[in-house]
Amino acid sequence: MTTAVTATGAVPLGRLRREARTYRALGRAAFRSLVAYQTSFLFGLLATTLAAVAMLYLWRSVLAAGTVNGFDWPTMKAYLLVAFVAGSLVSSYVDYRMAGRIQQGDVAMDLVRPVDYQRSRFAEALGFGGYELGTGLVVAAAAAAVFGGVPAPARSSLGLFVVSAALVLPLRFGIVYVSALVVFWTRNYVGVQSARIALVTLFSGGLVPLAFFPGWLQGLAAALPFAGMASTPALLYVGGLAGAAAWRAVAVQAAWTVGLWWLGRAMWRGASRQLTVHGG
Amino acid sequence: MRRNLFLYRRCLGAQLRATLEYEGDFWIMSVAALVTQGMGFVFLWAIFRAIPQINGWRFWDVVLIYSLVALTEGIAVLLAQGAWSMAVTVNLGGLDTVLVRPFSPLLQVLSSQIGMNGLGNLVLGGSLFVAALVHVDATWTPVRIATAALVFACAPLVKIGLNILTNCSAFWLKTPWSMFPFAFHTLGELARYPISIYGIGVRLVLSLVLPYAFMSYFPATAVLSLGDAPWLGLLTPVAAVWCLLLGRWAFHRGLSRYESSGS
Predict the structure, then answer these.
(1) Nearest C-alpha in A relative to B27
(2) Best residue in B27, B36, B57, B200 to probe A by mutation, most A CBs within 10 Å?
(3) pLDDT tens digits, residue range A231-250?
(4) Contacts of B202 in chain A (CB under 8 A)
(5) Is residue A3 included in any domain, yes or no?
(6) ipTM of this predicted complex?
(7) How many CA atoms lie within 13 A of B4 on its CB side?
(8) Which residues of B65-88 are buried (b: 16+ CB within 10 A; e: fewer)?
(9) What is the pLDDT of residue A1?
(10) Residue A271 falls within a domain, yes or no?
(11) Residue from the list A47, A199, A212 with its beta carbon closest to the beta carbon of B39
(12) pTM of the entire structure?
């Protein structure tokens, strides 16, 4: 900080550029590692694709009789596929790697590295995200083709949709990062992860639009970080959110994105103080 | 047979004690299983709040199918979780130890693990199963009770057989990960809903190629007399035997090409 004051702006700018290069390299390495070990990732993707296909079939039967809760079949298709792509982001490896390193004690090495831990993981999440987004879009496009196409995004909320879609990755990163840090205390990862996935999948509206829940549960889901992970962008895509409600949903999404980032910071401070590394 | 059962119980018992050493993990996994299956129930409940039935299946009928998948999962995880360890065992050459012991290699592999999420699945699946049986619209004649006992008892064996079959891919793939069988496991989860909602291709796969539907949908049709051909559900015991035999056949085929890890 002192150097920043004494040198006239040149040092912080240089440092900033150096840091940006570091994080970019981390992101690129993450992307490449996913491409290099594609097989296991693609089998994982196949699993989530099958689940999404089951949902499409289920909703086709449910909506065969007509519109329910404001959703007809074409709208629901678009909603589910946008939710699917949103759900494929930060779905792999970030927390898996973190948890593994925490359990093995390798995280001690991360503590001595001259880069910020959380920003490094975020850079990796962006790297993975590039690949996840690509494959997610391909699967969604294929599913859309099989199920007879989806309507284009609603014009009226297109701008907000873009903002909301851009917030999905940092928001999902927040919850994934926080739940991976829990491993510092539980030393168990599989259980925490599967419970988190179940909660997020349901309350993000990824399987069933939140409009199908009773009022109190809808309110709860909308106030929690979950809705922003699938429901908000998907509703904006199909034009299910308009006016003040749309702005409010995106504001909640942005607030949680920032809030979870700082919660992650606070947890990391507490966690690194109580880390146990076994000898060896 | 008697000796096999005895040894199987002893192996599982040893695994159970090992598992309970990690008490914290055990509770976390049990709660996680409860949450996961509970969310599935909430999902069904949310849909059926809006509509009375899907293809003639009402809420509790679908809950019965859903609970059978959860129960089956719980039983498979408690009694035959070892199938999922095959990828690592084969990759590391761990079958060497198994092969020199005087007890069926397949049974050794199957009893080499106990999944900690089994109890959570059993508790929630069991509760939903009982609740569904109380609520479904069926007259419980002696014949129906006998049918139910038979088909529901055989349903988990279908899943165990298919778990063995898909996990035997380890002998050919030789990777330490179980991604390939896991993809099929997810395919099996399509059987959580009445399979009449799917297209003909998916239905054929789930009933004939990898008959996951016999762990849930078909037994339920037989007991509830629902669907196009409820009598098909009576074939559940046949499907169970068929899947177990397939699993055993694949294991022996795999074993014949197993060449250890060279270390």
Answers:
(1) A191
(2) B36
(3) 999 999 999 888 899 999 99
(4) 53, 57
(5) no
(6) 0.85
(7) 8
(8) bbbbbbbbbbbbbbbbbbbbbbbe
(9) 38
(10) yes
(11) A199
(12) 0.87
For residue A113, count other CB atoms closer than 10 A to its CB. 10
How many C-alpha atoms does A154 have within 13 Å on its Cβ side?
A: 20
Q: How many CB atoms lie within 10 A of CB A239?
A: 18
| Chain A residue with the nearest C-alpha to that of B53 | A62
> Which pLDDT value is given to residue A10?
54
Within 8 A of A46 by CB-CB distance, chain B residues are 183, 186
Tokens 């199918």 map to which residue? Answer: B65
Radius of gyration of chain A from its Cα atoms, rounded to whole angstroms: 20
CB atoms within 10 A of CB A197: 18
For chain A, the domain total comes to 1
Q: With DSSP H G I counted as helix, E B as strand and the rest as coil, what are the percentages for chain A, rounded to 5?
A: 80, 0, 20
| CA B221 – CA A121 distance, rounded (Å) | 49
Q: How far are the Cα atoms of A191, A279, B113, B161 from residue A188, in angstroms, in the given order?
A: 7, 19, 17, 29
Residues in chain B: 263
DSSP state for residue A149 in the 8-state scheme: -
Model pLDDT for residues B73-105, shown as the tens digit of each residue: 999 998 999 899 998 888 888 888 888 888 899
- The alpha carbon of residue B153 is apart from the nearest alpha carbon of chain A, in Å, by 26
Whether the CB-CB separation of A85 and A131 falls below 8 Å is answered with no
- A2 assigned to some structural domain: no
Instruction: For residue B47, list chain A residues with Cβ-Cβ distance below 8 A.
Output: 58, 62, 208, 212
Q: Comparing B154 with A198, which gets the higher pLDDT?
A: B154
Query: Is B42 close to A202, i.e. CB distance below 8 A?
Result: yes
Question: End-to-end alpha-carbon separation of chain B, Å?
Answer: 34
Q: What range defines the domain where residue A218 resides? A: 13-278
- Do residues B112 and B85 touch, judged by C-beta distance below 8 A? yes
The backbone region for B26, taken as left when phi is positive above 0, alpha when psi lies in -120 to 50, beta otherwise, is alpha
Q: Which amino acid is at A80?
A: L
B166's tokens: 């898909």
Is A7 domain-assigned? no
